[in-house]
Specification:
By secondary structure, the protein is of the alpha/beta class. The chain is built from four helices and three strands, in the order βαβαααβ. The chain has a domain of 80 residues: Rossmann fold, CATH 3.40.50.720. It is 43% helix and 14% strand. A three-stranded parallel beta sheet has the order 1-2-3, with helices on both faces. α2 packs across α3.
């Protein structure tokens, strides 16, 4: 990438990089470290035309989300739908992301159109993160 004086690095991490998620101490720590590393790298690689950005997906409708909901429901003695409804309730848009919506954000950051965007953490979370 340095030789070509062009490159795109897009990390998919989590909204926990901006706003820690309760009971996920190790995950929050690793994702926060990844966000800081990417911000550092963005400054180091910018002179070579290489951008480094992070996509922070929120709740996304995937088999992993369903698995987490099932385990949470079993632990709490609730139905899976009750858990999913509670998670949807904290998303201002009122639904989970579709995987292709996360991919579209990453695709933009990887495109030439994002040539002046580097070192950012882009939440794709339906408005769930409360911080700016």
């Amino acid at each position: 990438m340095k030789e070509a004086r062009y490159g795109r690095i897009v990390n998919i991490i989590s909204t926990s990089a901006k706003e820690p998620i309760p009971n996920l101490g190790v995950s929050n720590t690793v994702r926060g470290a990844m966000a800081a590393w990417a911000k550092t790298l963005a400054g180091e690689l910018a002179p070579f035309g290489i951008t480094v950005n992070n996509v922070l997906p929120g709740y996304t409708d995937t088999p992993r989300l369903r698995d987490l909901a099932e385990r949470t429901a079993a632990r709490r003695g609730q139905s899976v739908e009750a858990v999913l409804d509670a998670w949807r309730a904290v998303v201002p848009i009122g639904r989970f992301a579709r995987p292709e919506e996360i991919a579209a954000a990453a695709g933009f950051l990887a495109s030439p159109a994002a040539s002046y965007v580097t070192g950012i953490h882009l939440p794709v979370d339906g408005g769930r993160i409360a911080s700016l």
